[in-house]
Design brief:
Belongs to the class-III pyridoxal-phosphate-dependent aminotransferase family. Keywords: Pyridoxal phosphate. It holds the Pfam family Aminotran_3. InterPro entries: Aminotrans_3, Aminotrans_3_PPA_site, PyrdxlP-dep_Trfase, PyrdxlP-dep_Trfase_major, PyrdxlP-dep_Trfase_small. By secondary structure, this protein is of the alpha/beta class. Helix content is 35%, strand content 16%. The strands form four sheets. The chain has a seven-stranded mixed sheet with strand order 4-12-11-10-7-5-6, with helices on both faces. Strands 1-2-3-15 form a four-stranded mixed sheet. It is globular, with a radius of gyration of 22 Å. The N and C termini lie close together (6 Å). Bound molecules: pyridoxal-5'-phosphate.
Length: 450
C-alpha cells in the first residue's frame, strides 16, 4: 500500500513540545504484556491494531509507552478523557475521596454523590432534574429503556440504523450495526432509516427521514410506542451528524404516539461538540431522558441517566438497585470534571480548536481524492475514506493502514463507521491548535506516501 515511514525524512512532521517526563518504567516488556493478554484476556477486540501499544502513562492530551515514547491521543480513550489524562484536579478529587470513603451505596447519604447530582442536574434545561447513576453507558441506556417502558406501558422502541447504544440485551437491540449484534433475543426494537447526510437515501432532508419514523409507528407498532432513542451525533457509527430538522420532527411524532424521547449523550456530551454542553441542544429539542457516560468521569467508570421527576417516579419504591452506581470516588471525579470544564473553558476550546481542525481536514480533502467526507462538530470529528468519491466504495483497508502509520508517527486516532472506513477524532478537550496542526500534518504525510 505505501512505503514505510522514513525516519530521517526532513518532511516528517514534528510533535509539538510538551513539558512532562513520565516516571521511569520498570514493569514487564510490551512483548510480555502481549503474551499475557493473549493467554488471559478475552480476544474480543484484538483485531483493532496489528501491533497494539503498551501504554503506561498519560498526561493531558498525551500518552506514553513503556519506553517513554510520547503519543498524541486524538481518540481520547474513545471520547472519554475530556479534561486530559490524569488531570491534576481530577486525580486529587479521586485520591482525596478514596482516602476518606471508597464505597457507599445509595441506601445512605453521602456528600460526594449528592453534590455531583445537584451540579449535573444544573447542566440541564427544563424539568430534567433527577439523576440515576450507573457504571457505564450500556447500563444508562438499559435503565432509560426500562423507565420508558414502565412509564408508557408500551414495549416498542425505535432507534436509528447505524446507532450504537451498548452491549447488554436491551441496548444491543437498540444498536443497529450487525458487527455489534449477536444472535440473542432482542425484542421490540425497530430501526429507522439513518439520517446520514453522506450515505443516507434522502441526503440532507431531515424531514424525509423523519417520515420513516412515522411509518414505523403506523405500520410496525400498535400506534403507541415506549421510546425513540438516538445519539445526538453517532460516534461508533462514524461521527455522523443527524440531518437538519430530523430530531424535532421525530420528537413530535414520538410524543404523539405517547412515547418518550431518549437522547444518548455518551459520546457527544460534556462540552465535546463545542457549540453546546450537550449534543441535543444544537437540534433545538429537549428530550425526556438523557443518558451519559465516558466524559462524565474523565475515564473513571461512571454513567448516568437524567430525567424529569414525573418520569423518575416510575422507579419509586421499586427494588431497582445498582451496587456501584454513584460510587463516591467516581462521583467525586465527576464533580471535578464539571469544575475543570468550566474553569479551563474547555467547551470554548473544543469549539475554537475543533473548528480550526475541521477546516484543516477539509483542506486536506481538497488534496486527496481518498477523503470522501469530513464532518462533525467541535472535537468530535470524522474523516471518511473512499476508493472513489462517485461510488463511495469504503476504503476500509486503507483506513486501518493509515491509522497504523499515524500511530507509528505518534498520533492515535480511532476508526469506526459501518464499514470501518472513518477516522474518529475525539481528543481530550485540552487539545491545542498545535496538536491539530501536527495531526493534520501527519495524516497529510501518511496519505502522500500511499
Ligand atoms: N452509547 C454510545 C453512544 C456509545 O458510544 C457507547 C460506547 O461506546 C455506549 C452507549 C455504551 O457505553 P459503555 O461502553 O460505557 O457501556
Amino acid at each position: 500500500l505505501s512505503q514505510p515511514v522514513q525516519e530521517n525524512d526532513s518532511l516528517l512532521p514534528k510533535m509539538p513540545p510538551f513539558d512532562y517526563t513520565p516516571p521511569s518504567y520498570a514493569g514487564p516488556s510490551a512483548e510480555e504484556i502481549l503474551s499475557k493478554r493473549q493467554k488471559f484476556l478475552s480476544p474480543a477486540v484484538f483485531h483493532f491494531f496489528k501491533n497494539p501499544l503498551n501504554l503506561v502513562d498519560g498526561k493531558m492530551q498525551y500518552l506514553f509507552d513503556e519506553k517513554g515514547q510520547r503519543y498524541l491521543d486524538a481518540f481520547g480513550g474513545i471520547a472519554t478523557v475530556c479534561c486530559g489524562h490524569c488531570h491534576p484536579q481530577v486525580v486529587d478529587a479521586i485520591v482525596n475521596q478514596a482516602k476518606r470513603l471508597q464505597h457507599s451505596t445509595i441506601l445512605y447519604l453521602n456528600p460526594a454523590i449528592a453534590e455531583f447530582a445537584e451540579a449535573l442536574a444544573a447542566k440541564f434545561p427544563g424539568d430534567l432534574k433527577v439523576v440515576f447513576f450507573t457504571n457505564s453507558g450500556t447500563e444508562a441506556n438499559e435503565l432509560a429503556l426500562l423507565m420508558a417502558r414502565l412509564y408508557t406501558g408500551c414495549h416498542d422502541v425505535i432507534s436509528i440504523r447505524n446507532g450504537y447504544h451498548g452491549n447488554a440485551a436491551g441496548t444491543m437491540g437498540a444498536t443497529a450495526q450487525s458487527s455489534y449484534k449477536f444472535n440473542v433475543v432482542q425484542t421490540g426494537v425497530h430501526h429507522a432509516q439513518n439520517p446520514d447526510q453522506y450515505r443516507g437515501i434522502f441526503g440532507s432532508d431531515g424531514l424525509k427521514y423523519a417520515r420513516d419514523v412515522e411509518d414505523i409507528v403506523t405500520y410496525g407498532t400498535s400506534g403507541r410506542v415506549a421510546a425513540f432513542i438516538a445519539e445526538a451525533i453517532q460516534g461508533v457509527g462514524g461521527i455522523m451528524e443527524l440531518a437538519p430538522g430530523y430530531l424535532p420532527a421525530v420528537y413530535s411524532t414520538i410524543r404523539k404516539a405517547g412515547g418518550l424521547c431518549i437522547v444518548d449523550e455518551v459520546q457527544s456530551g460534556f462540552a465535546r461538540t463545542g457549540s453546546h454542553f450537550w449534543g441535543f441542544e444544537a437540534h433545538g429539542v429537549v428530550p425526556d431522558i438523557v443518558t451519559m457516560a465516558k466524559g462524565i468521569g474523565n475515564g473513571i467508570p461512571l454513567g448516568a441517566v437524567v430525567t424529569t421527576p414525573e418520569i423518575a417516579k416510575v422507579l419509586a419504591y421499586r427494588s431497582y438497585f445498582n451496587t456501584f452506581g454513584g460510587n463516591p470516588v467516581c462521583t467525586a471525579a465527576g464533580l471535578a470534571v464539571l469544575k475543570v470544564i468550566e474553569k479551563e473553558s474547555l467547551q470554548q476550546n473544543a469549539l475554537t480548536v475543533g473548528s480550526y481542525l475541521k477546516q484543516r481536514l477539509t483542506s486536506l480533502k481538497g488534496k486527496y481524492e481518498i477523503i470522501g467526507d469530513v464532518r462533525g462538530r467541535g472535537l468530535m470529528l470524522g474523516v471518511e475514506l473512499v476508493r472513489d468519491r462517485q461510488s463511495k466504495t469504503p476504503a476500509n483497508v486503507e483506513t486501518l493502514h493509515v491509522m497504523e502509520q499515524m500511530k507509528d508517527m505518534g498520533v492515535l486516532v480511532g476508526k469506526g463507521g459501518f464499514f470501518g472506513n472513518v477516522f474518529r477524532i475525539t481528543p481530550p478537550l485540552c487539545f491545542t491548535k498545535e496538536d491539530a496542526d501536527f495531526l493534520v500534518d501527519v495524516m497529510d504525510y501518511t496519505l502522500s506516501k500511499m
